[in-house]
Amino acid sequence: MNRSRSHDLFRQAQAVLPGGVHSPVRAFRGVGGDPVFFERGEGAWLVDVDGNRYVDYVGSWGPLLMGHAWAPAVDAVCEAAKRGTSFGAPHEAEVVFAEAIIRAVPSVEKVRLVSSGTEATSAAIRLARAATGRDRILKFEGCYHGAADSLLVKAGSGVETLGLPDSPGVPADLAKHTLTLPYNDIEKLREFFDRHGDTIAGAILEPVVGNMGVLPPKEGFHEALRELCTKHGTVLIWDEVMTGFRLARGGAQARFGITPDLTTFGKVIGGGLPVGAYGGKRELMKLIAPEGPVYQAGTLSGNPLAVAAGQAMLKAIEDPALFDGLEKTSARLCDGLSALATEAGVPHRLNRVGSMWTIFFTPDEVYDYPTAKTADTKRFGRFYHAMLDRGVYLPPSQFEAAFVSTAHGDAEVEHTLAAAREAFKSL
Ligand code: PMP
């Protein structure tokens, strides 16, 4: 497959962008080789600048639940743009959008819009600290909550791929307030809360992890954390930036039946435009300025284009058949991949929750950071390029989630499985 134009553009990019990209994992450091430059997206497909076509399982890292250039969002954005691209002042659609979020996610009684997931999690942490008068937060090893200082401690995602568990530039005095525990370890959780619970402002986690690859929560893990947070007055923050509006209309919390105190959103909520949000209990949200003293603001927050795309998305997911369809396509795809890997004698674990999945090249169960690290990343890199050359675009790292959209159908699954049959054999 000829990708000479991508290659040339990457050289050009490296002269002016750090590492040639605007976000680290895009640079393909996790799999080697040059990243692909894209010209356009059409439903489940991406077309690169050399005219090659790929079935896309990155979906812009999660937002594109309905695939690329989804007409209802595109039309809504174009219509909104004609009326003005930004007001920096209240407008009706942002209120109606907030009402739709609250209808979909009952734990959210009030919500504030921001422009990225990182902004949402940073604000939620500040709010938890302000509400409790405590500084410490608890996060889980390998969970990623955005590139904010307090949260770049034992984070997954691009940080993991680059081997920078703590980034230089994060003050040690700040990082020391972020305590970490292994994901899915209920015993350690109980010990930790016995010892430190009353000093912890907030506990933040991905309810299904996507940022060390996909890891489902173990039975009882969420229940234990909910109970301990309530007991110790710790604010439970579910980071649903990835899972929100994807695993169900009401997100992972609807799936698992847990009520967090605060929830952060991003990705799907914006229908492919830059939107994030945080919301939760009224008594917490009333502390946010100007109703309360906790400062948080944004020039483009509630941006009418982003809100228009988000509204189209939230309307689409009111149809429960949409999630049934996603489940079926994802199951067919992942069962097929796993069967082909087994047939080719490739030890693997395929973790999937709804339309989020990862194939780990390890024979062992993957349920936390150390077990994810048992995966053979070199082998993943070879598999990655074998798939890429056969027209399948996967997340370029072993430690990321792949996503299925409603635009993926039988033809895309067939294409992917045919590529995978050859790719597994080539390993
Ligand atoms: N939280 C989670 C769970 C995420 O997956 C991400 C992004 N991958 C973020 C927060 C940060 O969101 P953003 O990149 O929009 O700042």
TrEMBL record:
Q: Which Pfam families match?
A: Aminotran_3
- What are the names of the required cofactors? pyridoxal 5'-phosphate
SUPFAM superfamilies of this UniProt entry?
Answer: PLP-dependent transferases
Per its record, what are the GO molecular function terms? glutamate-1-semialdehyde 2,1-aminomutase activity; pyridoxal phosphate binding; transaminase activity
- The EC number(s) this enzyme carries: 5.4.3.8
Substrates-to-products reaction catalysed: (S)-4-amino-5-oxopentanoate = 5-aminolevulinate
Pathway(s): Porphyrin-containing compound metabolism; protoporphyrin-IX biosynthesis; 5-aminolevulinate from L-glutamyl-tRNA(Glu): step 2/2
Q: Does the keyword Isomerase apply?
A: yes
Q: Name one GO biological process term.
A: protoporphyrinogen IX biosynthetic process
Q: Which domain of life is it from?
A: Bacteria
Residue positions, PTM N6-(pyridoxal phosphate)lysine: K267
The cross-references to Gene3D superfamilies, in alphabetical order and at most eight, read:
Aspartate Aminotransferase, domain 1, Type I PLP-dependent aspartate aminotransferase-like (Major domain)
Its cellular-component GO annotations read: cytoplasm
PROSITE patterns the UniProt entry points to: AA_TRANSFER_CLASS_3
Query: What do we know about how this protein assembles, alone or with others?
Result: Homodimer.
Task: Specify the protein name.
Answer: Glutamate-1-semialdehyde 2,1-aminomutase
Q: Which organism is it from?
A: Vulgatibacter incomptus
Could you tell me the gene encoding this protein? hemL
